[in-house]
Amino acid sequence: SITKERTEVILQGTSSLDPNDPAAVWEEYDFKCKPGDLKRRPCFITPYHYRLDWLMWFAAFQTYEQNEWIIHLAGKLLAQEEETLSLMATNPFAGRAPP
């Protein structure tokens, strides 16, 4: 164990025209091996790591200003860039308009 608290960066998008609307539904992008759903079995791929998932874990200990690549990642997800989406376990907007 590294820390006693679990801090996590979660990327979400919405199809709502007004993201500030309390009725807006936010959907989460799942990563292949990053901790997420507590009911999901942990991913074991030792001795390797999924690099993006590993970076997300470390990014949770800092601000986005210290991890500017997260802003670029979010932009690529908003643009539904196939290469970036291939790094994700799920795309909640597959077959739909981008968030």
TrEMBL record:
Organism whose genome encodes this protein: Ibidorhyncha struthersii
Gene it is expressed from: Lmf1
GO cellular component: endoplasmic reticulum membrane
BP GO annotations: protein maturation
Domain Lipase maturation factor 1/2 C-terminal residues, every copy: 2-99
Superkingdom, natural source: Eukaryota
Protein name per Swiss-Prot or TrEMBL: LMF1 factor
